[in-house]
Amino acid sequence: MKAAAFDYLRPADLGEALALLATHKDDCKILAGGQSLVPAMNFRLARPAILVDINDLNELDYLRADADHLKIGALTRHAAFHRPVVEGPLGTLLAKVVRYIAHYPIRQRGTFAGSLSHADPASEWCLVAATLRAEMLAKSVRGERVIAAGDFFHGTFTTALEPDEVLAEIRLPAMAPDWRVGFYEFSRRAGDFALGMAVAAARVEEGTIREARLGVGGVADRAIRLGTLEDQLVGKPASSALIDGIAREARGMIEPNGDIHASPEYRRDLIATSVKRALTEALA
Amino acid sequence: MNWIGRRLPRLEDPALLKGGGSYVADHAGKAAAVCFVRSPVARGTIVSIEMPSDGTVFTGRDLADVKPIRPILHRPDYVAIGQPVLPVDRVSFCGQAVAVVVADDAALAEDLAEQVFVDIDVADAIVDFDTALAPDAAPVHPEATSNVVVEGRMKTQGLDQAFAEAAEIVALDVRSHRQSAAPMENRGGLAEYDAASGRVTLTASVQMPHMLRTGIADTLGIPESELRVIAPDVGGGFGQKMSLFPEYVVLVWLARKLKRSVAWIEDRRENLLASAHGRDQAFSLRGAFARDGRLLGLEADLRSNIGAFSCYPVTCGVEPLMAFAELPGPYDFAEYGVRSRGVTTNTCMMAPYRGVSRPTLTFSMERMMDVAAKRLGIDAAEIRRRNLIKAFPHRSPTGLVYDEGSYLQAMEVAIEAAGLPAFRARQEAMRERGRYLGVGLSVFSERTGYGTPAYAARGMEIVPGYEIVDCTMDPSGDVVLRIGSSPHGQGLKTSLAQLVSDELGVEPQRIRIISGDTDATPYGWGTFASRSMVIAGGSSKLAAGKVAGKLKTIAATLMETSPDDIELKDGWARVSHSNQAMEIGTLARAAYHQSHRFKGLLPGLHENAVYDPGGTFSNASHIAFVEVDIETGGVRVERFLVAEDAGVLINPMIVDGQITGGVAQGIANALFEEIVYDDTGNLLTASFADYLPPTAAEIPEIEIMHMETVSAESVTKAKGVGEGGAIGAPAAVVNAICDALSPFGIELFELPATPQRIREALRRAGGASYA
Q: Which of A121, A152, A173 is the C-terminal boundary of a domain?
């Protein structure tokens, strides 16, 4: 259980890091928290020739909130979200979700941006980013670009990032105080990968849903934002019948994958239950 | 002051808790690293093995002189199968070691191993019993004519009559899926070559060091004197570390061949792939019940998947023959018919795992009792009341003799503590809110501390069972106990020290126990089968008793009284009814330095004793409370009670620890852990991301109550308690799930009861929302 040989580089700043990525491209992998990459290397499932360790890049270790966004720098660890990082529903949601990410020691090292770059289908942060319509700021020596969440995730462990790019910042849209949020995840043990999960958020005025966000994760090759169901929620009064109907529709509209822990049929059950419970929490 | 019965903190713990433990890997620093190249397929013919030209690599051809591992049972139904240490012609399971690489460090060894290419002509693997038992199934091993390699059968004369008279016949098919003992420390060994003597010292994470020495010496064809085996601190075994594995033979062979030290530290993937598994069993039962709920007779067809090879020394008979003999469990009925088969397949070898068959057979009997109770309209506790053994000694239909126990009383104590009326009210109220709570009961017997007669009855060529203990008090009055048992986390040294303290009148802190070193301990059988407290404890008590007798004689001589008037306590030898006393240390010094004064006594204080008991039955009742989430199929164990009778408790805290750990593994068995192969025999659960030992978050506090039935079958009055927790818990948990789901009429007979399986059952029962 030892990694294959690799070279280890530790740039001092972002400029140096980007230059290394530009030089080595596919031969290198970025090491941030290493909580997925290092085990994969030890199993020899990942065999990068070069590791570019970005842990000295303090300029990427930040959380900034402005009127429009919460901006999450690439070195922000999961543990930073244990307490709400912003006031209001977004901070509440992130603090709830983070407790489902693996275990406490892993959350001390793993990073938000690392989870998104790794793009595990059962990643909680990928679900949050997809559902809340995050924007990803990618940087390279060629410049920078913003990628919408809908374009960012290409499938299991694959994203829109080019080999010379680093995911430098994630921008989550701010949520006004009148949004309500919900999250539900089912896994076999505390800290396990989700077999099914859902994020829901809604803005309700006088009993009527004005805006909605809904997504499910852990069931297919990437997190799925359920845009058509969001549209169905808008303009309707919140009720358990409405939630039940949405959950049934979610169950039918996704072709889930199967593995030893959950057949596609069982995952459909978990999609429905996760959607129902996340929505129920958000609309309570 | 008496030390027996006290919750003395474990003497082992300060070192373990402060990082002072000494495991195999702690010793392996300077040795060359060994890596095994393992078969990627379950079955096939080895065509060729391509090796890198610049590395140290050996294959089965290099080890041609090494004999296969071939344990023997003297039974006509047993087919002996040899396990080559490294195979030459064919592979029999996915993960079987086919070559070995030696390099300066572990990463280089893995690099080298990647360059070994094994060309295998792949054949269709036989993975499960149904395939293996099909009439046209090709034998897994050419030396066997079928895939049944051990089979026990019996039928009592009145069985047919019992079924003819039955008011209700309950038939059920139980399936227990395969599991791993998953010890915290994987296997590992360091073989060191001593140039001066030519001896090899193997330091290995094992439970039976003497047996390993015998097995390796026999396989290599060398005298045992050329090998020393040390079991240092061992991070859990649960049976998995009893067996002689090919890897250890190869390590000793390498050290002798290369005349250097070599170490293999197993990783988790290898452990799940190639160490040993257990509990892969399918039991079909038919119970004949009278109208009043009495079990009149039992008929059983039991299949155990024993994997590709037979484990040494206990053989592949361990699961099937345990199931054959002990299925009747705690119940009193006369008529029994059974056929129990061990079936070989192209999968990892079965070896003992905590409980050995009894988790599955207890699950089977306890599910049957619950189903019968429902059918006959009798309460679940009441049907057990009518069937439990009440008179002792009890003779089971298979001839086992049960010593005094408390089967009924333990169940009543557990039921009383459970507060069932209040629970039933809460269950009813919660159901109306769509929440499903359940309670489940299990009762079982646990045969423990059995010596050579029990093993000889199985027909084992190697008959384990006795223990020899050497007890020495040195001139300063400190004590050394040398034992053949080999504890690996149980706290045995503390318990033995308490036992010996009461014999010798010295504090436990002054008693040092040496175990796990074949150069320093008497030949013994190690630690397994809930035996050490009973058997090593018995011989420790007897050996210490002899030393105490000698001390009393010396004290009596020096104080001019009779040995019968001497009491050894708190470091002093006191003359009763007087104020005369001498320190035990002074007596010890006299034993060595003034020996001429004691006519008829040999100099010094050194005695040994052997204990070889027939065995004693512990018993317990478990009650589990669960909540089932009917939408996800998830189960949460809310509360768990144990009423345990393990006789006299030497250290109740350690006993509680054994029970708690066992119950945690039992809950794992009930809900979480499952080794899964695909149809080709490829392992799908090769890490703890897919093989799921529960965490502290999934295990509730275990509430434990003790009964103390004193048995004449144990000189320490203690019964074994190592396995009971694991035996009773799966039945209690699944009975509780079925109680929770009783509104849907669901009965589950499969372990583990995973969320997916529970949802399937709900869907079939029409209780699935969204179905």
A: A173
